[in-house]
Amino acid sequence: MNLKVLLPTEIFINQPVTKIIAEAENGSFCLLPKHVDFVSALLPGILTYVDERQCEYFLGVGGGILTKTGSEVRVSTIYAVQGEDLGTLRQKVIKQFEIMNERERLARSAIAKLEADILRHFVKQGVSADG
């Protein structure tokens, strides 16, 4: 099979694999090369895959959609982090969430400043905020 993990801005993984384990709302599932075509909504969690050398890898994913068509398996997700083992993955996920939280805080701050600037502009123009 070929696993392709797609993020909004990049192809995160594109490589041959022999096994994929992921989690959907109704539980974990395993895909092997001869598995029937398949579609599933993924929960945020860990996606495990095994490459052709039988090395196991772990991805933290923020939910998404998995489709298997023939030998192509595609995972579309908004967020993915790869770790060589679960401990490394945990640290990377924590760091990534800290970065995302900081970005969200900065965005909220910028929006609040923009709103305040708009209100100041209305006050200077002598127009009330009610219309």
UniProtKB/TrEMBL annotation:
GO terms for cellular component: endomembrane system; proton-transporting ATP synthase complex. It is a peripheral membrane protein. It is found in: Endomembrane system. Signal peptide: none annotated. Pfam families: ATP-synt_DE_N (PF02823). InterPro entries: Alt_ATP_synth_F1_esu, ATP_synth_F1_dsu/esu, ATP_synth_F1_dsu/esu_N, ATPsynth_dsu/esu_N. The keyword Zinc-finger does not apply. GO terms for molecular function: proton-transporting ATP synthase activity, rotational mechanism. NCBIfam families: alt_F1F0_F1_eps, PRK06228.1. Produces ATP from ADP in the presence of a proton gradient across the membrane. Belongs to the ATPase epsilon chain family. This is F0F1 ATP synthase subunit epsilon. The lineage of its organism: Bacteria, Pseudomonadati, Planctomycetota, Planctomycetia, Planctomycetales.
